Amino acid sequence: MRRLVWSTALMVTLAGLFGYAALTSGQHDHGGGQAQGHQAAQACATEFDKVVGEGRGFGLAFAADQNGYPGPMHVLELKDRLKLTADQEAKMQQLMHAMFSESRPKSARLLEAEAKLRRLFAGRAADDATLRAAVGEVERARSEVRLVHLLTHLRTRDLLTEDQRRIYHEARWGGR
């Protein structure tokens, strides 16, 4: 059951990422389902804003997580299965709180940069220079948020035993 929940969560997240990528890259369905496709993309963008606004990564650390570098939030969700020690649990809590403390203001900058980009187009003020500057601002902000999460995954891995990392990977990704 737990694997089904994780698989479903992963699929929803991946669908959201692909939907958001399609929204931001301008790709969309030219068939009869335009409105539905745009509504799904808008729902994904709304979810992105909510999740990132909370300081969470919205898949920005998948490269780490998939390859044996877990994040503290998911480790804590699996603490009983991983048989975390009290010390490990306390350190995971500290890492998670530190990550959110750093990621929330950076995430706010990312969301503001995305909003600024949308306003350029909404206000018909986009030109070559303003667009390049706005996209650069979005991508700098995105890389800062991503780096916070990836660095936290590095630190998290170091706190787990090899056996705990194996159990985590099996629980999250279905084995090696």
General description of the model:
The protein is an all-alpha fold. The model is unreliable at 1-26 (pLDDT under 50). The longest helix is centred in the middle third of the chain and has 37 residues, at 86-122. It contains 8 helices and no strands.
**Distance N to C terminus:** 19 Å
> Rg to the nearest angstrom?
18 Å
Helix content: over 70%
Question: Care to count the β-strands?
Answer: 0
Helix/strand order: HHHHHHHH
Query: DSSP strand (E) fraction?
Result: under 5%
Structural class: mainly alpha
Give the CA-based shape. Answer: elongated
The main pleated sheet reads as:
none
Layout of strands and helices, then pairs:
Elements: H1 2-25, H2 34-53, H3 62-65, H4 72-77, H5 79-82, H6 86-122, H7 128-158, H8 162-173
Concise synopsis of the structure shown:
The protein is built from eight helices and no strands. By secondary structure, it is mostly helical.
Search tags:
single chain, 176 residues, mainly alpha, 78% helix, disordered N terminus
